[in-house]
Every structure is written in C-alpha cells, then in structure tokens.
Design a protein that fits this description.
β1 and β2 form a beta hairpin. Helices cover about 55% and strands about 10% of the residues. The strands form 4 sheets. Strands 7-8-6-4-9-10 form a 6-stranded mixed beta sheet. Strands 1-2 form a two-stranded antiparallel sheet. It has a two-stranded antiparallel ribbon with strand order 3-5. The longest helix is centred in the middle third of the chain and has 33 residues. It is an alpha/beta fold. It is elongated. The chain has 26 helices and 12 strands. α7 crosses α15, α7 packs antiparallel against α16 and α8 packs across α15. Its main location: membrane. Belongs to the HAK/KUP transporter (TC 2.A.72) family. It catalyses: K(+)(in) + H(+)(in) = K(+)(out) + H(+)(out).
Length: about 675
Amino acid sequence: MNKQLERVSFAGALVTLGIVYGDIGTSPLYVMNALIGDAGKMGNISPNYVIGSISLIFWTLMIITTLKYVVIAMQADNKREGGIFALYALVRKNSKWLIWPALIGGAAILADGTLTPAVTVTSAIEGLKKQHLGPVAFSNSQHNVLIITTVVLLVLFMIQRFGTGVIGKSFGPVMILWFGFLAVFGIVNLINYPMILKAISPYYAIRVLFSPVNKVGIFILGSIFLATTGAEALYSDMGHVGKQNIYVTWPLVYSTLFLNYLGQGAWIIRHAGDIAYRNLSNLNPFYEMLPGTWRLVGILLATLAAIIASQALITGSYTLVDEAIGLKFLPRMVIRHPSNIKNQIYIATVNWILCIITISVVWFFGSSQKMEAAYGLAITITMLMTTVLLHEFLKKHLAKVTALIIALFFGFIELIFLISSLVKFIHGGYVTLTIMLGILYIMWLWYFGNKRREHYEKESEYVSLLDYRDQLSKLSADNTVPLFTTNLVYMTKIKGDYQIRRSTMYSILDRQPKRAKVYWFVTVNETNAPYESNYTVDLLETHNVVNVQFYLGFRKSQSVSVYLHQVVNHLVEQGILEPQIPTYSTERQRKVGDFKFVIIKEQPADLIVNDKLSSLDRRLIGGRIYLQKITASPISWYGLEFSNVIEESSPLFITQDQDQYLIQKKIYHRGRLSKTEK
C-alpha cells in the first residue's frame, strides 16, 4: 500500500472527503423529508416528534457509524483493506458456516450500491425544477429530470477508468464546500430555535419511539436508518484512503451532518403550522430552510455531492468484487490499476453492470420519492451479517463474553432496524432484494461449484511433472512425429512438488502427441510492487522442459507472449537453450522460433454421464463452468490476442471409476460364438 495512505496528510484527508463520505454526506437531502412523510403532513408534526427524531439520528450515527464501524470494525482490516469480504477472510478458518453471512452480506451491499447512485442523483436533479441558472430555466418535467439524471450517471461511470485518486482530488474540494455549507446553514437555523439541542440527550430518542406523536411507532426507524446507510461503504473504502485519514475526517463530517439535521429540525418546528406548509407531506426542508439565492447554491452543491455519493458506492463495489474474486466467490475479471496505489482499482465489467442496473432503476421508479421507499432495506442485512463476522473477529482479541455482549448489542439494534425496514418491501424494496438474490445466486454457483468439483476430483487428477520428463524429451526427439511447434506453451499453475493437472499432460501425450523442441509451463504471480517484473526458470534437469514463474507488479500488463520471447532470448544468449533460428524469417538475426499457446477449457459434457453426481452437483459444477465461459477469457487475461493460441476442451474428470455391474455376456467371432461360449 502507498505510504501516503498510512499517515495523515492534508492531501490524504482531501481524497478521503472526495471518496468516502458522499453517501452518508448526502443523507440530509432526504432523511427529514422521509420523517415528514411518516408524520403524514407538516401540520401533524410537534416539537417532541422532531426533537426525538433528530435524537434518534444522532445516536444512530454515534452507535452504528462511529462506534461499530469507525472504532471497532476498522480494526479488522485485512492488509489494510476493509469491507465484509476482508472481514470474512480474517475469520473464515473459525468455522465453515461463516461463508453464508459473507455471501449474503456481500450480495446485499452490492445490490444496495445500484440504488444509491439512482436515489441521490435523482433527488438532487429534482431540486432543479423551476429554478433558473443564468439564462437557463429548468422546467417542472419529471421526464427531463430522468434524462438529465441518466446523462450525469453515464458521465460518472465513464470517468471511473481514470482512477479514484484523480476523482478524489477533484471531488475533495467540493465536499469541503458541501460540509461547510451543511454546518453554516444548520447553525443559522438552529439559532432561531436553540431548544432543538435537547436532541443530544438519548432520553428523547427513546421517548419518541413510544410517544403518540409518532404515528408509525417502531417503523420510524426505517426512515432514521437512511442517515447511516453509508457506514458500510465507509468501511469498504478504507483500502482506498487509509484508516488514519478516516479517523481524522469523520469527526468533522459527523459534526456538520448533525448541525444540519438540527437546523432542518428547527426550521420544521417553526414552520409546521404555516398555512403554506401545514398540508404538505412531500417537501424538502433542506432546500426550504435556505434563504433567497442560497437555495440555488444549495441545489448545485447538492447535485455535485450526490454525484460524489455515487462515487463512494462505486469504488466500494470495486473493492468488494476484487476481494470476492480472491476468495473465489466470483469469477475472475480483468482488474486495472489506474494509479500506483494497489488498492485503487478499476473493474470495467463491474462498472458497466452497475451502470446498466442503476439507470434501469432510475427509469423503473421514475422519481426519488419512490426510490427512497426502497432505499436502505438491503443494507440492514449487510450490517447484520457484518456483526456476525465481527463477533468471530472479536473472539480472537477480546474475552469471549465481551465479544458476545458487543455482538448482541449491535445485532439487537440492527435487527430492530431490519424489522422496521421490512415495510419497504412492498414499496420497492423487492427490487433491491431481487438484485441481491441474483448476485447471491451467482456467488453460490461459483463458490460451491468449485467446492463440489474439488470434492469429486481425486488425487489422480493431479500428476507430477517430474514423472513425464523422459516422455517429453523422447517425444521432442522423435522425428517420426510431425513437429507441432518450436515452443509449446501451457498457461497452467504448478503446485508444490511439481504437481500439475493431468489434463495438461493428457493434451500433450494422449489427445494427439504434440511434438515441440521446448515445452513451457508458465505461471503468472501478481505482486504488490506496482512495476515489479522478474521471473525464475527451472529446467527440471532437462534441456527442453521448462517451468517458468513470472512475478509481475499489479500495474504491469500480463503480456505473456512478449515476456516469453525475452526469456527465450536470454536463455539462448546464456547458452542454456539451443538457438532456434528459423529457416524463413523477416528478421536476419532472429534466434527464437515460433510459439503456440494452449488454453485448456473444462468440458461439462461428462457431468451428464457421471452417475455419481447428484442433480444439485451437476447444476453447481455446470453453472460454474458456464460463468467461466462468459467472464474474462485467459486469452485476454494473459494478453494473447495476437498470439497463436489453441483452445482445447478437456473433461472435468479424466479418470472415472469402472462400473462394477458391467458383465461380459458373450464373445462372437465372425458371427459365431467363441469356443469358450459353447
């Protein structure tokens, strides 16, 4: 990890503000509006309802965001990476069943990430209705809002490839202005009703839950929870900015958010009975409390902040998917590193899937009010799953009783939030839950498909490369077999003690003997240094069977063909390999012959004939192979697009047990029974 992320600096804090706090920082745009909706209309709101609601917001941010995530969860970092998958990686050895909270929680936060950009950007753009920006006048058309929102989201997803560092530096100054704006106008309004400061006391938070002024009872927590939905993203983004920068910036962010909620609350109390407002159930007090031309400034800043809120979820999704790939929860995807910081990544596949789903959500719901009804349900599931995993982590570092008390404390609170949010299911929560189940299904197929395949694979599916050295050398010298290529290359991982998949040797020797002058078995290992580029060579006490281990930095392209040509040149110049001077070539001094790369693809056909597989196992293993086919191909992964590549299909299980019930009945010779049969 880059050292600048390990220490506190102004630049680091600026990037942190630009990347991490967009989601939770835009909650003042819609939380109080949701609470007004719970009351029915402005005229039904009393000071006790407002003070109690803001007290609930204050203590929710204190308990969930500050105490659970900033103070406790961020101690559970996996090589400075955060998020539910990083947490699972730390505790997975404790018990096998922990895979389920990891899969469920990860799927839920990825699903919620599709709704966050939609609701925040749409709500901000809707604020531009009937506003004038110089010569430009915005209409009251919701259709125009959807078009503008779509364009904004498209631009946002398009700039992701430039990296979160570049984006964070450009967004950081905007977020400084945004949080300053929240604080200033929060203070300006609370001065007019200083009694709102009573909300700091937890007494008012508890009282409002059981007060008759609260018409929805415990279900008010469904709206309150919107204030802390960015907490999980904060934990996930830790690897992008470093925990020290979050420790420094969060108190500032927390203070400005609370001041703004106090200001909105003061404005609502003072204007709830006004003729212009008392019959309204859908108004935004954040905009209403801004005087004169400051409202337009607030709308513009809110629009920019909403874009940044989307950024926080997008970068968090990259991190989660990267960790999921490492844990074998998801298929391998091409991951790019736009900067020299390993943790700052870009995954095009994830980016555009998120883009398509997010824009679809915008047009499906059509307005931010409908989106808000569905917002936050999935993330409560993630928080509960994080608490389960956090309990396992705390057991290693605290007394078991203490760890259990902490887990039960957070779990009880989050369970109440989940119950109170279930009412959102029929109002749109089913959309995010459907997306969550879709992601969970893919993870289930990939992870358990791998597990079931490994279960059926026997030791005989792996062989020692050392046992085939003599055969390979003999085949290479056998002039009765046509020369297949000069250099035959297999992209395969060699395990300890030179263990290699039988399918590789099957391809060379059994399918149709492939004669080559040199046989190459290549493994690519990614390292933490951005531009590291080195390799090791093991000739296995031969002159033409070579085990090559590449060690490439995370920013180096995996152009195996280019690297391998260099390796051959080096070995020829050193006299380790014989020159491979081709008979015909455009290069006069060329010493390297031709290459053929073989990619072996698993063939699921034998799943049908293998009667030992249950129907569930067939579905899991077959689904895993299908996912592998439609995701990143080895050709693009290893940069072999312009190389001579042969793709071969190989059965999953080359060796199968014999059928003990197969009995020889008769033997015929030219239509007659053999003598032994008469």
